[in-house]
Write a structure and sequence with these properties.
Helix content is 26%, strand content 26%. The protein has ten helices and 23 strands. The strands form five sheets. Strands 1, 2, 3, 4, 5, 21, 22 and 23 form an eight-stranded mixed sheet that branches. α6 links the parallel β14 and β15. α2 runs parallel beside α3 and α5 packs parallel to α6. The mean pLDDT is 97.
């Protein structure tokens, strides 16, 4: 396949008009055209790398924690239709027995179609009871090295992120023991600045949905956000228009830099469906517009109802984030974070030919996966 005259997002994080050539599913440069080769004239369109969501729970009535092949495939198909061509869905706070079934199902999934399942984000159960958010407190457990390793073995090595609260009793020893095996993220935490810095020094390097379910910034108690800034951690950001004020989104890109921000959807099963009653982690959720909240505790946000592509688009069109920065935060940065950037996340030579063609208003015109048009 040859994509001609597109405004290509280059590996240098700028746009340049040019052509993309995809052979055997991967991007190549300098190849001669082949007789009868498919040619797409993309004049006037952006060519963006396929996106990668490293933190979402569900969509279109399915949840990753359903632990069924049907649900994984439904999520893969939906995400691919939205230009998200690699996925690293998140678990919830559950018992090891329930997590076992999730890991077994993920390990058996074959990536036959839809977005490629490239990892698992283990969001619970090693978090704080005082910043539980929409997680289920019934299944909380202290960070446990042996439990993680058992789950990792069952998943076939798919767990790429483990989230924890560093102030909890066994968390620091877990970080020290496991930081070379998996990326460790500070999440659902009451930690102070000093404890967060100790966690980063021990090997943590990531922050889960920054600002949400953690202490904020004050001038006498700077908290974990400033610790993450000083220790150069990468930070997740939900730009659905509900979780974070646009001014704080701009602040985050300006202070952390667009090389350290990772856009995530944190979507639940209502994503792609009408308003109504749904569930997340075994708890009832009410969805109205872009807002999802626990039905019994309407002040608690329960994930989002927005996919990653629309979060990226909203960051650009509604929040004033430069397109170049938003694309980087939704493609290259998450791919690098979970160690799959040799295949995903950019339009560099050798990467999979995963391309989104979008118009000037960022409406999707075509989605191309490994050189095959799957949308448009």
């Amino acid at each position: 396949m040859i994509i001609k005259n597109a405004n290509v997002y280059t590996p240098q994080h700028v746009f340049a008009v040019g052509d993309l050539i995809i052979r055997d599913g991967r991007i190549v440069f300098g190849a001669e055209p082949l007789p009868g080769e498919e040619v797409i004239d993309a004049q006037g369109l952006y060519a963006l790398p396929g996106l990668l969501d490293i933190h979402f729970h569900g969509a279109v009535g399915h949840d990753f924690c359903d632990a069924t092949e049907e649900s994984i495939q439904a999520l893969a198909d939906f995400e691919a239709s939205k230009g998200v061509l690699a996925i690293c869905p998140a678990t919830m706070t559950y018992s090891e027995e329930i997590l076992n079934g999730i890991m077994d199902t993920a390990a058996a999934h074959k990536n036959g179609k839809g977005a490629d399942l490239v990892g698992i984000n283990m969001e619970g159960p090693f978090i704080s009871p005082d910043k539980i958010g929409a997680q289920n407190p019934k299944y909380l457990t202290p960070a446990n090295v042996e439990m993680f390793r058992r789950l990792q073995a069952r998943s076939g090595g798919l767990i790429k992120l483990v989230d924890l609260a560093p102030e909890e009793p066994t968390a620091m020893s877990f970080i020290e023991a496991c930081h070379d095996e998996v990326r460790i993220s500070i999440a659902h935490t009451c930690t102070d600045y000093a404890t967060a810095r100790k966690a980063f020094a021990a090997g943590a390097s990531h922050m889960t949905h920054l600002y949400n379910a953690m202490p904020g910034i004050t001038h006498r108690e700077p908290g974990p956000i400033i610790a993450a800034l000083e220790d150069k951690a990468e930070v997740e950001l939900i730009t659905d228009g509900v979780h974070i004020h646009p001014a704080m989104v701009r602040f985050t890109f300006n202070t952390f830099g667009d090389d350290r921000v990772i856009l995530i959807a944190d979507s639940m099963m209502a994503c792609g469906l009408p308003d109504g009653e749904y569930s997340l982690g075994g708890q009832a959720v009410t969805v109205k517009g872009p807002r999802a909240t626990l039905t019994e505790h309407p002040g608690v946000i329960a994930g989002s109802a927005t996919c990653l592509y629309d979060c990226m688009r909203r960051a650009v069109l509604d929040m004033g984030v430069p397109l170049e920065s938003a694309v980087r935060a939704a493609s290259e940065n998450p791919a690098r974070s979970i160690g799959v950037d040799a295949d995903y996340g950019s339009l560099a030579a050798g990467r999979y030919g995963n391309v989104i063609l979008a118009d000037k208003d960022l409406n999707i015109c075509k989605v191309i996966q490994k050189g095959h048009v799957i949308v448009g």
